[in-house]
Specification:
Layout (H helix, E strand, L loop, with lengths): L5 H10 L2 H4 L4 E6 L5 E10 L22 E6 L4 E6 L7 E5 L5 E2 L8 E10 L1
Antiparallel strand pairs: 1-2, 2-7, 3-4, 4-5, 6-7
Amino acid sequence: MERRAFRLAVENMLGQSCKLGRHTDVLVLTVSEGGALQVFKYMWTHIDFRPWGGFLPIQCPSCGYADAWRSAYIQADKAYSFECCKDNCSQSYIFKQPQGARMLTVGKNRGSGWMEVPLWIG
């Protein structure tokens, strides 16, 4: 038995499937050698569709305009800002990088990839 960390295997498996990430996040619960519970959330991110793993609707919920978003990157906050393109609509979203997030290098493409976020390390 090679005794490799399960999380490394998860990272490699996720790197093979960006299609899974378009539909769901993945939670991985493990127990450390000391017996402490560890919970990690893996989220697929894409600059235009799932910024920082968040949900950006295709249609503006305020005015109903489809494919409505104009985006900007806020360098200081590592955040993505989206606002509706339709005149007189003030709907907007801001997506910030989750605390402790780490982008995975496996399966990373231009503008998209998997991200690991620690939820609980006991």
